Amino acid sequence: MLSSRFLFFLSPILFLISTQSLAQPPDFRSYSCSSEKGNYTTDSTYQTNLNTLLTSLSSPFNNGNGYGFYNSSYGENADEVHAIGLCRGDVTGDTCRACLSNSTQKLTQLCPNQKEAFGFYDECMLRYANCSIYRAMETSPAFWLWNPYNVSSDVDGFYQELRRLLEDLSGQAAANGSLRKFAEGTTTTPNFQTIYGIAQCTPDLAEEVCSDCLVGAMGDIPKCCQGKQGGRVVRPSCNVRYESSRFYDPTTVPPLPSSSPPLSSPPPPPLSSPPPPSTRSRTVIIIVVPIVVSVVLIVIFFCICLRVRRTKKKLETRKLIPGGDDTDEIGSAESLQFDLATIRVSTDDFSEANKLGQGGFGSVYRGRLLNGKDIAVKRLSTNSGQGDLEFKNEVLLVAKLQHRNLVRLLGFCLEGSERLLVYEFVPNASLDHIIFDPTKRAQLDWVRRYKIIVGTARGLLYLHEDSRLRIIHRDLKASNILIDAEMNPKISDFGMARLFVLHQTQGNTSRIVGTYGYMAPEYAMHGHFSVKSDVYSFGVLVLEIVSGQQNSGFQHGENAEDLLSFAWRSWREGTASNLIDPTLRTGSRTEIMRCIHIGLLCVQENVADRPSMASVILMLNSYSLTLPVPSQPAFYLHSSIGMDMPLQSEYNSGATRSDRSKSNSVIVMEYETFTEPHPR
Ligand SMILES: *[C@@H]1O[C@H](CO)[C@@H](O)[C@H](O)[C@H]1NC(C)=O
Ligand SMILES: *[C@@H]1O[C@H](CO)[C@@H](O)[C@H](O)[C@H]1NC(C)=O
Ligand SMILES: *[C@@H]1O[C@H](CO)[C@@H](O)[C@H](O)[C@H]1NC(C)=O
Ligand SMILES: *[C@@H]1O[C@H](CO)[C@@H](O)[C@H](O)[C@H]1NC(C)=O
Ligand SMILES: *[C@@H]1O[C@H](CO)[C@@H](O)[C@H](O)[C@H]1NC(C)=O
Ligand SMILES: *[C@@H]1O[C@H](CO)[C@@H](O)[C@H](O)[C@H]1NC(C)=O
Fold first, then answer.
1. Cα 138 to averaged position of ligand 5 atoms, centre (Å)
2. Measured between alpha carbons, how far is 493 from 52 in angstroms, rounded to an integer?
3. Is residue 472 included in any domain, yes or no?
């Protein structure tokens, strides 16, 4: 009884252990097995010692020296194994331990039976040997890695600055006062490119030894990485790296202490120091192991309980955080920041073939990250009029808006004059490519169309009321509704008003951004916008979905009438069914008629007569609810706005390449200042 209970109690732990051991650690950046330095045989004492040592090195209870350096030895005489693990200076805590844990698995896999081996990831490195490696400088094997992108211009200027930076960093890292033996910093080239650099030694090295190692590594830079935007030299005892984009997190690197030379002060005790003579060590192990095991189990159990509780508590926050699946560092701009180099690689350097569309805010490209994830990258036209910090803050806010009917903003990239927004990729085309296409439209039966209407309404309601910010979309239209593989609608391009300073400079002119045929009259004519102007656009969209016709460019028989006028006339005359797309042969007529009714209510001229999105959802959900009778909608197309407005071609974030000549146009015009409502 007890045992089955105990097993039950254990099962989550066993499950955890088994699932964790199934996951393969990622490949090293590079590694080396020194087979000429000797082999050990399987099941030898050396192997047992090595395994014990590596397990203790990456155990969750080993904190190393507290700043990412792990040094220990285990065994005796010829079977003594020595290991050193080192995380990049900004990588700490769990990430560091996870990286080392991966390294221990990977290295023994890759170098079976080799006494000496060395491997590294971006975040950490691990080496082990049968001889003492503590405080011994090892410069080979050395690895050279470079970024494939070339420095665009003024290579000499770039290199002069780079050398100055790396010399400076090497000095800082090697200095007696530097406990971590790590330094990071940036410099700016003559043509205003930022170079990010790091230099690092294993912290067991004395100043001059570390310095020698780094000087040697720096000397390799011109050989490996001449003309490249990024490069690194990795040696067992030290490494240097530079890139044109940030590849480390400077916020987790504490400032260098100015006093206390580290090597003269006693180093913190290693957590798994060499065991004392064998008889004692055996008894110690025999007694300690069961205690340790039970303590470990209890601790694991509590961790799991805590985790479960924390996950529950965190669920809400997690949902709000993009990329939350692989990082706990949430809410910081850095965690959402992508490298320009990564984006360049993923979009094949913004190749024309990957271009999905072009519009008022910039072009959109399709990309694929190294992990296989598809993304859509919006390359903003340079002048968003916002400072870097404001831009980052706004991205953070917009990225927190997450709903199944919104296209998810995954992050951004901000480098030099480049400003990119990275979105999840939505596989199907935008709605306009389907609903206004005579052949594709026929595939969209009423059930699917209704699902699109309801989904869009839900997404909009979230933006208006349920999210922490009150977001007014301002440019809701068929081409901003993307359709995913399951034909769910996802609203794109929301929050653009936050990411762009629409009131130019501090003056009192503003741009109105919206699309002909979808803009509420009060917005188009007076620049007044509110949630109700989005409701108007939604109404137009509903009527378009029902009829399969575009509001602007609507044709019915010989009458050159816009969709809204036609809808209203038909409604009044009791012939509203004329509005229904003839390809819709199935589906509930009552439901379709109700949608026309709701659409008309949304496009009422009087703002107060339009329902809120919450009411719209209610109307869609409850057939018993009696709808108000609509009055004449706003036909602003016939009013004061003429076609001589300055027009800007539309930005299309759809998945298919847009035909620019066919796309709707965006009205951009100067207007009086308006203010975005404040977050609630
Ligand atoms: C390490 O192993 C090699 C090859 O087995 C051996 O020649 C060497 O003496 C060993 N070094 C130490 C310190 O035991
Ligand atoms: C160790 O084993 C590898 C193959 O596994 C072999 O190539 C190498 O020569 C061996 N080294 C020594 C010193 O025996
Ligand atoms: C360690 O490996 C796991 C897969 O086993 C991977 O998910 C994780 O990202 C790796 N962590 C680091 C820091 O390399
Ligand atoms: C960088 O320049 C070299 C020659 O100088 C060229 O072969 C290579 O293709 C360039 N790489 C890129 C990514 O432009
Ligand atoms: C650093 O410490 C070593 C040994 O304590 C000493 O010999 C050396 O002069 C020191 N270097 C500097 C720059 O203070
Ligand atoms: C590292 O390991 C060596 C050899 O096992 C030991 O002498 C030294 O005290 C350890 N140092 C630290 C900082 O752990």
1. 21
2. 54
3. yes
What DSSP letter does each residue of 141-158 carry, written as one string?
S-EEEE-SSBP-S-HHHH
> Which carries the bigger pLDDT value, residue 80 or residue 223?
80
- Give, using CA atoms, the residue closest to atom 9 of ligand 1: 78
Around Cβ 247, how many Cβ atoms within 10 Å?
A: 21
**pLDDT (mean) for 439-459:** 93
What is the 205 CA–ligand 1 centroid distance (Å)? Answer: 23
Residues 512 and 447 grouped into a single domain: yes
DSSP H or E stretch at residue 51: helix 45-57
Place 468 in a pLDDT band, splitting at 50, 70 and 90: low
Measured in angstroms, how far is the CA atom of residue 240 from the centroid of ligand 4?
23
508: confidence class by pLDDT, cuts 50, 70, 90: very low
pTM as predicted: 0.46
Of 186, 187, 165, 168, which is closest to residue 178 (Cα–Cα)?
168
Contacting residues for 193 by C-beta, under 8 A, at least 6 apart: 151, 158, 244, 416
Cβ–ligand 2 distance for 110 under 6 Å, the answer: no
What's the rounded Cα separation, in Å, for the pair 638 and 506?
Answer: 33
Ligand 5 pocket: which of 176, 205, 265 to mutate (most atoms within 8 A of CB): 176
With a 6 Å cutoff on the Cβ, whether 265 touches ligand 5 is: no
Residues labelled catalytic:
475
pLDDT tier, 482 (very low <50, low <70, confident <90, very high otherwise): very high
Q: Residue 240: CA atoms inside 13 Å, Cβ hemisphere, count? A: 31
Q: Is 261 in the pocket of ligand 5 (CB under 6 A)?
A: yes
Q: Is residue 344 part of a domain?
A: yes
Task: Give residue 272's pLDDT.
Answer: 36
Which structural domain range is residue 579 located in? 428-636
Residue with tokens 């699932």: 19
Q: 586: Cβ below 6 Å to ligand 5?
A: no
Indicate whether 221 and 350 sit together in one domain.
Answer: no
Average pLDDT score over residue span 411-421: 87
Confidence of residue 283 (pLDDT cuts 50, 70, 90): very low
Kindly identify the ligand whose nearest atom is closest to the C-alpha of 64: 6
Q: Which ligand is nearest to the CA of 210?
A: 5
Ligand 1 atom nearest to 131, measured from its CA:
13
Q: Please state, in angstroms and rounded to a whole number, the distance separating the CA atoms of residues 413 and 341.
A: 10
Q: Is 378 annotated as a binding residue?
A: yes
Output the pLDDT for position 491: 94
On whether the CB atoms of residues 175 and 183 are closer than 8 A, the answer is no
> Which residue has the CA at smallest separation from atom 7 of ligand 3?
25
Most confident residue range from 15-24, 64-73, 191-200, 246-255: 191-200
- Taking the C-alpha atoms of residue 672 and residue 133, their distance in angstroms, rounded to an integer, is 71
CATH of the domain at 60: 3.30.430.20
Indicate the number of domains in the chain.
4
In this structure, are residues 115 and 35 in contact, taking their beta carbons and an 8 Å threshold?
A: no
> 38 or 275: whose pLDDT is higher?
38
Tell whether 654 is covered by a domain: no
- Of 33, 36, 37, 81, the residue with max ligand 1 atoms within 8 A of its CB, to mutate for a pocket test, comes to 37
